[in-house]
Amino acid sequence: MTVLVEMGSPLQRNLVGVYTIWLREVRKFWRDKSRIIGATVQPALFLLLLGTGIGRGIPQAFQVDHGQQEFLPGVKDYLTFIYPGIIAMTILFTAVFSAISIIWDREIGFLKEVMVAPISRWAVAIGKTLGGSTVAMLQGCLMLVFAPIIGVKLTVFTILTLLPLLLYISFSLTAMGIAAAARMRSMQGFTVIMNFLTLPMFFLSGAMFPVGGLPPWMDILVRINPLTYGVDILRAVVIGYNDYPLAFDLYVIGFFGLLMLGLAVLAFSERE
Amino acid sequence: MTEIIEVEHFQKVFKTRTGFYTAVRDVSFSVRKGELFGFLGPNGAGKTTTISILCTLLRPTQGRATLNGFDILKNPHAVRQSIGLVFQEPSLDERLTARENLEFHALLYNIPRALRRERIQKMLAMMELEMRQHELVRHFSGGMKRRLEIARGLLHHPKVLFLDEPTLGLDPQTRSYIWNYIQELKREEEITLFLTTHHMDEAENCDRIAVIDHGQIIALDTPDGLKKRIGGDVIYLTTLDPKAAKDEITHRYRVQVHEDPPGIYFEMANGAEFIPGFIREAGFKITSISVRRPTLEDVFLKLTGRNLREELSDSLNLMKIHARKKIR
Known about the structure:
The structure holds two protein chains of two kinds.
Chain A (H helix, E strand, L loop, with lengths): L9 H22 L1 H25 L20 H30 L2 H6 L5 H22 L4 H4 L5 H26 L5 H17 L12 H9 L1 H14 L6 H24 L3
Chain B lengths: L2 E14 L2 E14 L3 E5 L6 H8 L7 E6 L2 E2 L4 H7 E4 L11 H11 L4 H14 L15 H13 L5 E5 L7 H17 L3 E6 L2 H4 L4 E6 L2 E6 L1 H6 L4 E7 L2 H12 L4 E3 L2 E6 L2 H11 L4 E7 L3 H9 L3 H6 L4 H10 L1
Parallel strand pairs in B: 3-8, 3-9, 6-7, 7-8
Antiparallel strand pairs in B: 1-2, 1-4, 4-5, 9-10, 11-13, 11-14, 12-13
């Protein structure tokens, strides 16, 4: 006897599709403990070793006046300064790394299972992006455990503000990774391209140094880098220091995210 | 409605770096509801490409088709809901358990919650995977993976199940298991099965076969119907002087004689009765002789002038690799 399967409205089907794809990403992240540890250790090294080393080793490089007690107005020391930047870095790397799952899915053939399912391609793109962003957000949250070590006080209110903010930034960066990965066929190629993209993005985001007195050519690059605004708003929330208006930060991140999501949807929708 | 798939003048041209490559030249056929329909042909003949178009993974360059009454171009979602697919290459998530793979599929196809559990359970039971449903697919053997893929393809009650080379890369024993499942399926589910294969013995199991070569269907018939195209039985013999034997037979019986080292063979009606007289009259020394019923292999050879076995050994079929990449 054949049981007729309920079709449901197209929108409902697609939303279930988004949820399904999201669930798979999150479930697999949770299962892969070594990946979680790896993605935590790397930024921790940046923060604790590089941050401490630079902060203590060459204080004169950052201080105009040797008598000055603070690193920047309201910022206790270098370690405190880069802490939000390192959270942004964690998100960036996790978001981009999670986009590799598309190429991986293609490689193992699983992408076909998704592509022949009766859901729209935009649902696939959004599901993947949401899955990756959730993973990046969780990974970003893990970085919050370093706050007491560095001496940054986090209130409940700060943390509650941070969660949606981390997700927001993660979404934007994951969409970028997905848009790129959807067009690529090889894992190696993607890794190379992404290193070319993520490292400059990270270096030019003001995560590791203040963006005040940069030469003009670099200043321009910093300003057109969407991650700059992610770092800026995280710094505002975590340590109360920022260079740009917060609303502007949000707009830039949001606009960039939508643009990238558009490209990702487009890449998925092509049928030869 | 007795025709569940109707294809009219499919054509598919791929753009390659050096120009164009026509994977499907001009293909028209229809599949009847409830039948086991087979595509038989060598690698690169256009089998997978045609299936991919029907499954809405590729767009035809030209032509149109309906599946379960839905136009594949205008209504791809309804087509996708109507079909199940077992791909030639594995398409499972090996880092999920067998059950999770099925649950993922059930959600994607929006199977109502109430039915989901029961249906998953039934498919696991049918494919004899219940015991290992909570294991990661990574630890499964090739045959188990294929069974899981079949279970998954059936989960949402498709009207048509596509099986692209369902036994590729499996050992003979597992192959026959998979075939048992396919036969069982045909009995138990109201379903049309559409499979591609390059195994002659598998094609024998089909209700009807389309022989496809160079992107065209060169014959479409039941296995018996196809074999009737051979003029009777196949007589194979070895001799010390194949060339003389070939000339003599061609001349005397007006049949085409083929070479298949070390011997030669030709077709003849009522082969068993033909042999005694043949041996008496032969002007050359026969070292061995046999008669057998024609196989699909012979049909393929007759239709294309090529041997399917030789085609298969040509494993570096670049065209095929190319087409496969496009589908990904």
